[in-house]
Amino acid sequence: MRGASLAYTYFESPIGALLLAGETDALQVLGFPSGSRAMEPAPTWIRDDRVFRDVRDQLAAYFTGELRAFDIAIDPRGTPFQQHVWHLLATIPYGETRSYGDLALTLGASGASRAVGAANGANPLPIILPCHRVIGSTGKLTGFGGGIATKRYLLDLEARVAGHTTLTLL
Question: What is the pTM of this model?
Answer without folding.
Answer: 0.90
